[in-house]
Amino acid sequence: MSLLSVLFPSAFPALALAHFVALLSPGPDFFLLVGYAVRYRMRDSTGLCVGIAVGNGLYILLAIIGWGILRQLPLLFTIIELLGALYLLWIGSLLIRSRPQTLTGADARSTCPGFGKQLLLGLGSSLLNPKNALFYLALMTALLGPSVTLLQQTMSGIWMTSVVLCWDLLIVMFIGLPQIQRRLTRGILWVERIAGGVLIIFGCAIALRFLQSIVV
């Protein structure tokens, strides 16, 4: 038995592919990153990336050690979902109400939240999206199967968390490229407002779905 087969389950390639394809689909975290990185670039967006990755890692941990919790406590899932809707509405409103500001200079750096605040912002965005929990639950159970070992689950979780972090860093790195920044200089306010509008749409959709479930 090779070391790779001990560390990773046989279904790992399928899991890695499914996870990466999901990352290509823009969600709340993506639009939060775009709205943030377009103003502060990579240097001042790292904490946000780390926070999102940590949030994903915590849901992966939940899927490994207590994947039945959300299924057994539907009220908890609903509460997290509603908190997530409010959070997205709040963040979206902040982006929409952002003021014009240049992309370069000390002003942008001085108004940028510190690493700790960025970390909490990204963590909140990730944790208050219960779809992340369901997504990782499906990956860790349906794809890996019942015979997967704890070590293999752990290695798969580390892999997915690392990919989330690297992907988010690539996004803000791309947005921070000088040529991209020059193209965005005139449209920064609109980029932020569009990102904020999309986040508000996500939040309204979650709230609407909850109201529909009550009516039904």
TrEMBL record:
The keyword Glycoprotein does not apply. Its main location: membrane. PANTHER family: ARGININE EXPORTER PROTEIN ARGO, LYSE FAMILY TRANSLOCATOR. InterPro entries: LeuE-type (IPR001123). Keywords: Cell membrane, Membrane, Transmembrane, Transmembrane helix. This is LysE family translocator. The chain crosses the membrane at residues 12-36, 48-69, 75-96, 133-151, 157-177, 189-211. It is found in: Cell membrane. It comes from Citrobacter freundii. It is a multi-pass membrane protein.
